[in-house]
Write a structure and sequence with these properties.
Length: about 500
């Protein structure tokens, strides 16, 4: 492939460290607040996932933050436990008080931050940065230094700051694209130029304001970055951070770069974080979304069933997902036959054509046919008699507040058209009363049992109606129908049972 040739020109590291900041930057997602107990649950999961570093919070923010950090550190996790701190004595002491073994310290370096937020000169920022790193190292901890808003900082000043903190003993420098303004070409060039200045590992922290956080993280690795900051599900301030699951899978599959992440745990971790934070993932979210490995279009399904790689860049099981063949208006016959084989359902050609038409009609109405829907539809088709002595020609129902429910039904009974109107306690009762009244001249058949069930949730769920009808001679039959309209399903189920009794006589 073309990408294989291009990779030879990249400065790719053999392995990339994953610095997870779900419990810090991810918690800064508007509307998200994670309790200490929930932080511990997520931390345990992240450790099992295999992150190299987890940033567990901003200890200077509150006693609760410090307590949570201490409790997570006490778990004896494999991951390094990190606390965030500004280049201020009180922040650094709060982080030290949290018993973390890794401090990520930062200060704004761009003209905007210097002039409007910090009111500090370049010299003051340089001095504070060096002092903070030296203080961390004096206490025997790992020091990571970030020049906040690095991507909007003058390059000469940025070089000076990073060189100074490297000389002060920093273990790693981090390059934050704080407001997500970088484009991949610029990010790649920045990291490449910084690699010529500093010898310690470079990390990147990209925000997604323009939807480029993952892309910018990846090109940084192409240029030699050895660590990526990311969050589960891309949570974070404003538009969020680089999505851990997307970064990792691109590194592993597209670049062939190793990480310590157990990729088969990605979907489960995503779901846990989604439940705890209350931030639901869109179905088309890459890697972990519900539709990430779902196929509906007939052409795609045909290819996937022959060889999955035709329309899947990786195996769903690799990330803890499963493939789904979705039924809808784009579904081809091959996909439906494949599903029926999975259910051990056999149909003749006429029955299959009837089922196929129903799926298409439901798709045209905007309905997605689930596996449960398809099974119910198939059972209905299989249960229909081969011939019909009583056929529905049409019906209408009238119901509402202060209106007596009334149904008008037109039937073709052995070639004769009959019509009547009956009332009932509801539209279903009225329709069944009308059918029984019309059929009574041919056979006195009564409803013995009626059951209805919504196949799936939602107001557009298919209604599956099951009835038992019986005549005076003791002949009985079951009837079934599955359609989106409750009254129609009831009418079809009743007629299904009546036809079985009449044909069986």
């Amino acid at each position: 492939m073309y990408i294989e040739n291009v990779k030879k020109e990249m400065n790719l590291p053999e392995k990339v460290r994953i610095f997870d900041t779900t419990l810090r930057d991810g918690e800064q997602t508007p509307g998200v607040a994670i309790t200490p107990d929930e932080k511990i649950r997520i931390a345990k999961r992240l450790d099992r996932l295999g992150v190299d570093v987890m940033e567990v919070g901003f200890p200077a923010a509150s006693q609760g933050e410090r307590k949570a950090a201490r409790e997570i550190k006490s778990l004896g996790l494999n991951a390094q436990v990190c606390g965030l701190a500004r280049v201020l004595q009180e922040d650094l002491d709060a982080a030290l008080d949290s018993d973390v073994d890794y401090i990520h310290t930062f200060v704004g370096t761009s003209p905007l931050h210097r002039e409007y937020k910090l009111h500090m000169s370049q010299e003051e920022i340089l001095s504070k940065s060096v002092e903070a790193v030296e203080y961390i190292k004096d206490h025997g901890l790992i020091a990571e230094f970030s020049a906040e808003d690095a991507t909007r900082t003058e390059f000469e000043f940025l070089k000076n700051v990073y060189s100074a903190v490297e000389d002060a003993g920093a273990d790693i420098i981090n390059v934050p694209d704080t407001v997500g303004v970088m484009v991949p070409t610029s990010m790649q060039r920045l990291i490449k130029n910084l690699k010529e200045v500093v010898k310690i590992p470079i990390s990147v922290h990209c925000h997604d304001d323009f939807g480029l956080a993952v892309a910018n993280s990846l090109v940084a690795v192409e240029a030699g970055a050895e660590q990526v900051h990311a969050t589960i599900n891309g949570l974070g301030e404003r538009a969020g951070n680089a999505s851990l699951e997307e970064v990792v899978m691109a590194l592993v599959t597209s670049y062939g770069v190793k990480t310590n992440i157990k990729t088969e745990m990605l979907v489960g971790t995503s779901e846990l974080v989604s439940r705890i934070t209350g931030v639901k993932m869109p179905p088309n979210k890459a890697i972990v979304g519900e539709n990430a490995f779902a196929h509906e279009a007939g052409i795609h399904v045909h290819g996937v069933l022959e060889k999955a790689e035709t329309y899947e860049p990786l195996k769903p099981e690799m990330v803890g997902h499963t493939r789904r063949i979705v039924m809808g208006k784009h579904t081809g016959a091959r996909a439906i036959r494949s599903k029926l084989d999975d259910y051990d359902i056999e149909m003749d050609e006429d029955q299959f054509c009837s089922l196929y038409d129903q799926v298409k009609k439901l798709g045209d109405k905007g309905k997605m046919v689930t596996d449960a829907d398809l099974q119910a539809l198939a059972e209905t088709v299989l249960g229909r008699p081969k011939e019909e002595k009583v056929k529905l020609e049409g019906f209408t129902v009238m119901t509402g507040d202060n209106v007596l429910p009334t149904a008008t039904v037109k039937l073709n009974i052995d070639g004769r058209i009959k019509t009547t109107a009956k009332t009932g306690v509801g539209p279903v009762d009225a329709a069944i009363n009308a059918i029984q009244s019309l059929v009574r001249e041919t056979a006195d058949i009564e409803l013995k049992e009626y059951n209805i069930e919504a196949i799936t949730g939602g107001t557009n769920a298919l209604a599956e109606v099951f009835v038992i009808m019986a005549d005076k001679e003791g002949n009985s039959a079951t009837g079934r129908s599955t359609v989106e309209d409750v009254v129609m399903a009831s009418v079809e189920a009743v007629l299904d049972a009546i036809n079985k009794i009449l044909i069986g006589r």
